[in-house]
Amino acid sequence: MEELTIIAVRGLGLGAVFSLVAMSLNAVHRASGIFNFAQGSMLVLGGIIAALYMPNVPDPYRWALFLPVAAIALALVMTVQGYITLLPLRSSVEQHSWLVSTLAVSVLISAVILLLRGNSQILTTSQFPSFPVFGTRTPAPYIMVIVLAFIWYAALRWFHSRTLTGLSISAVAQDLDAARAAGLRVRKLQMLAFGISGLIIGSAGFTAAPILAIANDSGLAYVTNGFVAAVVGGIGSDTGALIGGALVGVLSMYTAFAYGGEFQNAVTLGLLVLVLMIKPEGLFGTPAARKV
Amino acid sequence: MAGISPTDSSPATGPALAMTGGAEPVPEANRRPADLQLATGIVLIIGSVLLPAVLGNPYWTHNFTIVSLFITVAVLQNLLLSDAGQVSFGQGAVFGAGAYITGIVSGLWGYPLAVGFLSGIATSVVMGLLFAAPALRVQGFYLGFVTLSAALVFPEMLVAFSDITNGINGIALPVPALKEDVFGSLNWIAILAMALACLSLVFHAWFRTTALGRKMRVAAVSPEAALTLGTSPGQLRFIAFTIAAIGTGVAGALYAASIEFVSPYAFKVDLSIFFFFSVIVGGSGRLIGPVVGTAILYLVPNALLADLASYRLLAYGAVALIIMLVFPDGVVGTLQRALRRYRARSGMAGIDFKTVLVESAAVSRDAETSIGITIRKARKAYGKMVALNDVDVEIAPGEVHAIVGPNGSGKTTLLNVISGLARLDQGEIIIGDADATRKSAYLAARLGLGRTFQTPRVFDDISIWDNLQIGADASISGRSSWLLQSLEKYRPRWSRELPDSLPHAQRRLLEVLRALAMDSRILLLDEPAAGLSSEERHDLAGLMRMARDKMGRTVVLIEHDLGLVWQVADRITVLDAGEIVTSGLPREILADPRVRNLFAGAPPEGAANA
Amino acid sequence: MLETRNLHSGYGRVPVLRGINLQLQPGEVLLILGANGAGKSTLLRTIAGFIKPTAGEVRFDGAEVSGQAPEELARRGLRLVLDGHRVFPNLTVADNIRLGAAMHGGKPSFETLAGPAFEMFPILREKLHQPARELSGGQQQMVALAQAFAAKPKVLLCDEPSLGLAQALMPPILAFLKDWARNGTAIVIVEQQIGLALSIADKAIVIDRGEEKLSGSAAELSNDPRVRQIYMGDAR
To answer: Which residues of chain C does A161 touch, with a Cβ-Cβ cutoff of 8 Å?
Structure first.
């Protein structure tokens, strides 16, 4: 019984991380059609900020101060990345250059982490005490990251339906030509979408740092798991990302408990292939979204 | 990413149809650029291994042996990426499977090396097929994520199944016989690796001259066009993944023997990314691209940063990013482009409509039996929108049958259901005497349909001649195309020229010729006159008449330009809102007031007093 | 206000327009007629910056603007309404209209933006908070026009407003455009149906295979038998 609770609670916590990765992938994809292969590295960067600046003796105030710092730092990094990624798309007919450039950015970030911190896992102390959930002691970040996923879900909904800028990004996603005809500066909005994606992933990495495997080479595993969450939920749907993340997270945690951590990625890969073969549009996606 | 793109880069200017005749003596070297690249590649590979071997430097001999094996994988990745259009970020796992199974079978279980090699290669092929399965459903970044994920999982599985793989301790695979120096510091492994790399290059060059190779490149760029040429893109993807897996597996098996040790760390996801980046950095689609790319990515960090292994990853990422931003065609592609720009000034070949007409008409054989199309009670809806409603059309053998109607009247839908690109909800389609109602596009094409598209599907990275040859490859009669035979004397020149700088009218002609070269009995032309001048339209009309009269073809013409329709059509069917308005001879149609109103609108009311 | 000189353009390397000249003053309504595939939409898309001309120039508001991005031209007051009543399907009617003025920073009140459009199309007020995808084609066309109206352009380019709409819906739409022009906006309308928009146009041109075949006042052209001949492929 206790084991089930642990699997459920920690699975949902891990799933919330995948949901946040998926939402941040969606944010960029909606506005530009790009899937950022470096998104996992961005999550790791958010975690590294926590590792660098969070003290070993818990200090919640310091944490609250640095959360926005991490989010904004990643927003800046991703805006720059967006600028670089969108650069060749201006003139070239090469519409898939982003596959290479985002993967290259991921490799670069891994390389820099390797150079500065070596290849060992970087640990972060949780700034909040663990507390009992259904009778099991649960480290606070598992719960905090779930709350964060819901906060971002609500914030994105509000932004895309209430603010003029958010509406503009939605418009670009729905009909690019009509958006340009309406005088919306598509390129700027796309870079903004990269920035927003950075805010999401920066805050996620920072909050989840104590429960993440932060290392030079862990970025790709997080982006592929986030992608699986996005595909399961339906690409482009944040509701789908929330649910897809939870599914992938619980499945992954169960696998780790039942068969060992080394099978986690294999099982999510199996899930990805299964969904793509059977229902490629995912739970909440439209069939048109599958067009490749 | 794809090597050949039908996308247009520059608007064509200059004279339209009659350009420099193709039959002039060929100036300068008659060598095709592929041959030059192939020769350079082989010289580079052999030279790089032999030179240090002669100098007796085992360190560099070993390094270049590894480079040769990596080149092999990259060459096949290039084939997979640019010829077949498949994004795989997981070739390192295919490579690793070959290496590891060789290690397990020969190193752990003690079977002879030959058995180890064969098991390794077989396992790689299985891996390749596992990649191919999702490729049937999804493409592009989906496939990228799946393969990337597989590359991540592969080393984890090596650790997870440690009772078979010996886990993180790895497996020793001593092969003293193969490691003995034959000459200088040259051993058998080096010779085999060198030969394998050369072989893979020769294979890639040869593959591109085969019908299968051409079909694959067409399918990569335009699955639709491939379907109408009678090939199934899914099958081609499977073949491409298999070919790549075989060569990659051989390289993997040799790699295990070359290092004499395998461990999970050697086959991490970085290796897969390395192979992919090698192709991009060298120039995807260019024969020699992977040779140059592998050399740059492997040697630069190894030579310049030999003591700083941790900088390697940084170098891969930085080089790939810079290349993508500054030289999106890669090193070789950029050089080639510059060279071509220089050469372009010395004049271009062109296709001359009139010459072609005269030449091919002179040798055209007796018209074979023509076939027609019967469409009965055809209905097709997209959601709520009914595109075709109860449509009956009879296209008689040997006639030019025009289908006209306003935008959205269902003309293109009709063409798509005939050619099998869309499937009818109800009704039937008979082509000749075969029921084509449920046939998919590539099977319908084999019934004798040849088709052109609104925007010509001309493939810019293969020669003008190969663009025609694609049609002949798909010939339903199985004979060599007489049309191509009649054009044989242009072959040397057209084999050297790429169609990318041909003006629109010539691209259109090329596409029509390709459909004719298929020996198709029925020609489906989708707005062929769009973008042609009046003179070019006149020539096009001549070509259609010739196809009908001299070659016994049935022509189905969808056209907005009514002027052209009156000129060539034997019968006309008028569509509006998915229904047949009328069908008949041109003069009947012209006299029909309903048709006039359809095209020009009702007579203006109250316009005079506005 | 708007002028093209010897304008050539096309899709990729497919040439479509071959030397179009037109001129338009503030408050004028110009109708561009032509059969299917004549190049009408290409002309509007070239003027609006979606297609780069291969030769010739587009002049707007006294300056050469060829090759500028469509969003920049829209911000300067050259606004294209695409054919096929394109709206943002998942946004509400109100948000669709608000977006029209997004480039002005969203300062003006909603009523000033859309008031006159609502007067002409009262149905939109009822559907204000419905997603645009739930509207009929005609209502979507009204939304598209109201969105363009909110942008207060100097020149409006309107691509086949009648496409896919019932004929009965056209009079209010045309009346709206005519009123709009009276306030000094120059309007270009593309139509395939000859009779439809001549009543509100000041002048018209007929293009065929990318070339200008006829031009004149709307009244002259409405009685010219050559127009129909061009449509029917010059067959006699």
So the answer is: 95
Structure tokens at A131: 């507390």
Q: Do B13 and C54 touch (CB under 8 A)?
A: yes
- Torsion, Cα C156 C162 C165 C168, to 10 degrees, reads 100
Whether C115 contacts chain A with CB within 8 A: no
| CA–CA separation, B516 and B520 (whole Å) | 6
Full 3-state SS string of chain A: CHHHHHHHHHHHHHHHHHHHHHHHHHHHHHHHCCCCCCHHHHHHHHHHHHHHHCCCCCCHHHHHHHHHHHHHHHHHHHHHHHHHHHCHHHCCCCCCHHHHHHHHHHHHHHHHHHHHHCCCCECCCCCCCCEEECCEEECHHHHHHHHHHHHHHHHHHHHHHHCHHHHHHHHHHHCHHHHHHCCCCHHHHHHHHHHHHHHHHHHHHHHHHHHCCECCCCHHHHHHHHHHHHHHHCCCCHHHHHHHHHHHHHHHHHHHHHHCHHHHHHHHHHHHHHHHHHCCCCCCCCHHHHCC
The domain locations on chain A are 2-289
Q: Which of C79, C102, C106 is the closest to A184 by Cβ?
A: C102
Contact C109/B at CB under 8 A = no
Domain A2-289: CATH architecture, name and number where available? Orthogonal Bundle (1.10)
Question: A237: which chain C residues are within 8 Å (Cβ-Cβ)?
Answer: none
**Yes or no, beta carbons of C192 and B406 under 8 Å apart:** yes
In chain C, which residue's Cα lies nearest the Cα of A174? Answer: C88
CB contact under 8 A, B608 and C16: no
Asked if A135 is an interface residue toward chain C (Cβ–Cβ < 8 A), one would say: no
What b-and-e string marks burial along B233-265, b requiring 16 or more CB atoms within 10 Å of the CB?
beebbbebbebbbbbbbbbbbbbbbbbbebbbe
Chains that touch A (3 or more CB pairs under 8 A): B, C
Q: Is A278 on the interface with B (CB under 8 A)?
A: no
What's the predicted TM-score (pTM) here?
A: 0.87
Name the nearest CA neighbour of B572 among C33, C232, C228, C230: C232
- Each residue's pLDDT, cut to its tens digit, for chain C (236 residues) gives 899 999 999 887 778 898 999 999 999 999 998 887 788 889 999 999 999 999 999 999 989 998 899 999 999 999 999 988 889 998 999 999 988 887 776 666 777 777 888 888 888 889 989 999 999 888 899 999 999 988 889 999 999 888 777 778 888 888 889 989 998 999 999 988 787 788 889 999 999 888 888 888 888 888 888 888 888 776 54
Determine, for residues A180 and C50 on separate chains, whether the beta-carbon distance falls below 8 Å: yes
Bridge partners (DSSP) of residue C217 are: C203
Reported ipTM? 0.92
CB contact under 8 A, A108 and B153: no
CB of C75 within 8 Å of a chain A CB? The answer is yes
Beta bridge partners of A138: A131
Domains and CATH numbers, chain B: 37-273+284-295 (1.10.3470), 361-609 (3.40.50.300)
Query: Under 8 Å CB-to-CB from A123, ≥6 apart: which residues?
Result: A51, A210, A214
Q: Is C63 on the interface with B (CB under 8 A)?
A: no
Residue of B nearest to C223 (CA): B608
- Do residue C222 and residue B608 have CB atoms under 8 angstroms apart? yes
Give chain C positions within 8 Å (CB) of B603. 195
